[in-house]
Design brief:
mainly alpha, single chain, binds benzoyl coenzyme A
Length: 387
């Protein structure tokens, strides 16, 4: 039996094997709510979650190991750089107190800020359907997901702040277009099935991209990613579950699910960034162990995982060239239109203007909350000083 069919058979049967898989997942992830999934499993998801657990164990082991000093006692110049290289080379974590090359700091701020902005802007396309969710349960699930995204943004802004930038500065750069957010959130959500397609494909792509970041060399980013990835797994599952339900509904519901997958497939492939040969940051980011895999490697991993899942869903991926290549063990696929990716990144996507305008309005509307919180904190400080 081909691997994909074997996975599909496990996924749709109610065999004890499948139950074991779910129980193992629940034990590994603790908080991602897999125990209650009765109807289907998401092929490929358990391996990624095991990677998150392994990254978490590595992180704890690294914290316990003696790094031979904390960098503070190391003299200057070359010695600091050598110490930095040694820590990164040994898969230890660089912490905010450590010396780091300025380009490493800047590169991290760029990537973490872009990631944080993506989480916050990413609340909009799905938020668009909160008031029109078809049932109380679907509404509660979607609310929880969108709120998680706000939380992810918060963890990431906090990680960026450890590198000496303020959140106000990062917001300012987002709103003035000096920092980017993911291209994917510049596409519209036209039907309820788009919520499912985002969960399945967009969160699926995000997980594939983000699980390796749990092993990033910068401690605060790695720790934030472990927490985020555990929650992302629920996000992908809710999308898969939503599409699974529609695909087995009426003809109209099935057509709506297929239409959403047709529209979100190529933008999801483009999320991984330009091809390796055109990626400006990959080589340096990989040398510093910020990125652990190249854009093309991750894109392939995503296709391999998703092609199997599509079989379980009973929906087609809109690529006639898609097929399993026995010798390589990978799926062949058609690349996305990278010209379109560049146009969307540079501001010419279907919803760029709308997304930023909405964010600016929300930011302005929230000014009184920030001012009140700051005034309250100042009052507490004064009282404490006087006591
Ligand atoms: N969109 O040298 P490259 C989520 C830019 S949110 C926009 O390969 P790098 C979710 C790139 O920034 C998940 N820009 O870059 C939330 C660079 O431009 P700059 C978001 C892109 O950094 C809500 C230039 O192109 N995930 O999960 O090595 C609901 C050259 O690229 C894109 C992350 O942010 C793009 N797609 O690799 C649901 C993960 N692709 O900065 C879900 C963290 C490329 O020089 N980020 N660019 O002006 C990363 O892993 C990496 O930054 C990327 C790009 C793989 C995205």
């Amino acid at each position: 039996m081909a691997a994909a069919h074997r996975v599909a058979a496990i996924a749709v049967s109610g065999s004890p094997g499948r139950r074991d898989v779910l129980q193992n997942l629940a034990a590994v992830t603790g908080c991602c709510n897999t125990g209650g999934m009765e109807r289907q499993e998401v092929p490929g998801a358990s391996g990624l979650l095991s990677e998150v657990a392994a990254a978490e164990a590595e992180l704890r082991a690294a914290a316990d190991r003696d790094r031979g000093g904390d960098g503070a006692g190391v003299a200057a110049g070359d010695e600091l750089a050598a110490y930095f290289d040694e820590v990164v080379g040994a898969d230890q974590k660089i912490e905010p107190r450590d010396w780091m090359p300025e380009a490493y700091r800047k590169g991290l701020v760029r990537q973490i800020a872009q990631h944080a902005h993506s989480e916050i802007i990413g609340m909009q396309p799905e938020g668009n359907w909160l008031s029109r969710a078809p049932s109380l349960a679907r509404k509660a699930i979607l609310l929880a997901k969108v709120q998680d995204e706000a939380g992810h943004g918060l963890y990431l802004y906090a990680a960026a702040e450890t590198l000496g930038v303020s959140r106000a500065e990062l917001f300012d750069k987002l709103l003035s277009g000096r920092q980017k957010y993911s291209s994917i959130f510049n596409y519209p959500t036209l039907t309820w099935a788009d919520v499912g397609a985002i969960g399945w494909l967009v969160d699926g792509a995000a997980i594939v991209n983000q699980v390796p970041l749990c092993r990033c060399s910068y401690g605060p980013y790695a720790r934030a990613m472990i927490r985020i990835c555990k929650e992302e797994s629920f996000h992908q599952r809710q999308g898969f579950d939503l599409l699974y339900t529609l695909a087995r509904g009426t003809d109209e519901q099935r057509a709506m699910a297929q239409d959403a997958v047709d529209r979100w497939w190529y933008p999801s492939l483009a999320m991984f960034g330009p091809p390796d040969a055109e990626s400006t940051h990959s080589t340096q980011s990989m040398a510093w162990k910020i990125k652990r895999f190249s854009n093309d490697e991750l894109r392939q991993k995503f296709v391999d995982m998703t092609a199997q899942q599509a079989e379980v869903l009973g929906l087609n991926l809109p690529d006639e060239a898609l097929g399993y290549d026995q010798p390589s063990g990978h799926w062949r696929y058609t690349q996305p239109d990278f010209g379109e990716l560049m146009r969307v990144i540079s501001g010419d996507g279907p919803c760029n203007r709308q997304r930023i305008e909405h964010r600016r309005r929300a930011h302005d509307d929230g000014a009184w909350v920030r001012d009140s919180a700051a005034a309250y904190a100042a009052k507490q400080r004064t009282r404490k000083a006087a006591a």
